[in-house]
Design brief:
The chain is α/β, with parallel strands linked by helices and 453 residues long. 40% of the residues lie in helices and 17% in strands. It contains 17 helices and 14 strands.
Length: 453
């Protein structure tokens, strides 16, 4: 089977980024080496779409492509049809040339590329100044970044707990450092005009009042992590980042409320939620996206790929969880319906829409060959199902946030405090990266967007 790798800039521009090109070539190289494939075809399609088709190494060999570096341009000469075994080497060399060529530039530095009439030569060129008529990576539209601080900091801690870094004063930093670094990376990647970090207060929430076992099996927070919650909050406060925590509610509820406010004011404009908590799937909506960490990077969930993965709508995630529950030492302690698992919960919700639809159709479910075994469990667990739905539902109208204005979330980093605190925490790598311009998220375009809002 052929494997396709496509580099596609916006339909309205010929621009791409160094990062997108090099990442795609790296992916192709890996595929070539793992699958022992070769390049069958390299072609340029509509809107300057560069397509590379991989096939088995059984084609007719042709001349190996060549790469030339000319000042600030890279010219790529290649046949449109090639299936040489040297293709992997060629791509690897081109990748190295691109990295060397882009040395000293942001990985989001824009490139333009063009082709000759025969389509056999591609020219990549750095774009130092982007004209206003072109679409750029940055945006003049409002963009909200919401970070689940408790989730992000805890994930960073447990990923690095084997190496509990401390500064010279004995302050633990193994979780704060990766969180601060990721924060700057998120600013660079998504270029938000508004930012908020939301935190849990403690486990004594309205959900525990509904169900005493809610998060009841979780172990105590390690002392080194507890200390870093205070350190992180102080750091972001001094940086001028809006933070929110409300007694009786969880970070999810604050994120849900701020997302609702954002959609009311800005409709479908981009809102990025950063968390590994799957409960936040329920907030996915037009413009609302969930950024989840995966091995080696991130995955961006939107309504479309969520529905493709689970074949349900984001709002139905609550009903699935109401049936499945979530138990265990690291879980939320939601009871669910006993003996109802994935193989029943998802089909039930897909077919009957929600809990109300399921319980109104028990007779029909009983006549179903595949699902009739669930009827007795559903009847016995009805109260737990509806309780579980309440526990799993994110609040989108936390009262204390009712008067909060979106303008209060506008991003305006106190860079002097940030650098002073990075130095005090001994974040030498971060200091060097900031000074080298790696995280230049601010600039004319972002400032214009903030002013427009």
């Amino acid at each position: 089977m052929d494997h396709y790798f496509v580099l596609l800039p916006s339909p309205t521009t010929n621009y791409m980024t160094v990062h997108s090109i090099t990442a795609a070539f790296s992916s192709m190289i890996q595929k070539l080496e793992m699958k022992e494939a070769s390049i069958r075809e390299i072609s340029i399609g509509e809107h300057n779409k560069l397509s590379v088709t991989l096939g088995e190494r059984n084609g007719v060999p042709t001349d190996t492509p060549s790469t030339l570096l000319e000042g600030e341009k890279i010219t790529w000469n290649t046949s449109l049809h090639t299936s040489t075994s040297e293709a992997a080497t060629y791509l690897r060399e081109l990748n190295q040339v691109l990295y060397k060529w882009s040395d000293g530039f942001e990985k989001d530095e824009l490139l333009s590329f063009s082709k000759n009439e025969s389509g056999t030569t591609l020219t990549f060129e750095k774009v130092k100044v982007v004209r206003k008529e072109h679409e750029t990576v940055s945006t003049s539209k409002p963009v909200l970044l919401l970070i689940d601080g408790s989730n992000v900091l805890s994930s960073a801690y447990f990923a690095t707990e084997q190496n509990l870094l401390q500064n010279r004063k004995g302050l633990y930093t193994n979780a704060v450092f990766p969180m601060a670094r990721r924060f700057l990376s998120l600013l660079r990647k998504y270029k938000p005009t508004h930012v908020a970090i939301c935190w849990d207060v403690d486990r004594d929430t309205f959900r525990r009042q509904l169900h005493a076992g809610y998060k009841g099996e979780r172990e105590e927070t390690p002392a080194a992590l507890k200390e870093q919650f205070a350190t992180a909050k102080k750091l972001f406060h001094r940086m001028g980042i809006k933070q929110s925590s409300v007694k009786g509610f969880e970070a999810d509820d604050l994120i849900g409320t701020l997302t609702s406010k954002w959609r009311t004011q800005f409709g479908g404009e981009s809102c990025y939620i950063v968390s590994n908590d799957k409960d936040l799937y329920q907030l996915l909506a037009p413009g609302v996206k969930l950024v989840r960490s995966i091995k080696g990077g991130e995955r961006l969930y939107e309504m479309e790929n969520f529905s493709a993965d689970y074949n349900i709508t984001p709002s139905q995630w609550i009903d699935v969880k109401a049936l499945l529950g979530e138990t265990g030492k690291t879980s939320d302690g939601i009871p669910g319906v006993r003996y109802v698992g994935d193989k029943a919960a998802f089909p039930l919700v897909r077919q009957y829409r929600d809990l109300d639809g399921i319980y109104a159709s028990l007779e029909q479910i009983g006549a179903s060959k595949d699902l009739k075994r669930c009827v007795k469990h559903l009847e016995d667990g009805k109260d737990m199902a509806y309780l579980s739905k309440k526990l799993a539902t994110i609040v989108t109208d936390v009262p204390i946030l009712a008067d909060l204005k979106i303008e209060e979330l506008q991003l305006n980093i106190n860079q002097q405090n940030m650098m002073l605190d990075f130095a005090a925490l001994e974040f030498k790598t971060l200091l060097r990266e900031v000074e080298d311009g790696k995280y230049n998220w601010w600039g004319e375009e972002r400032e214009k967007a903030a002013e427009a809002v």
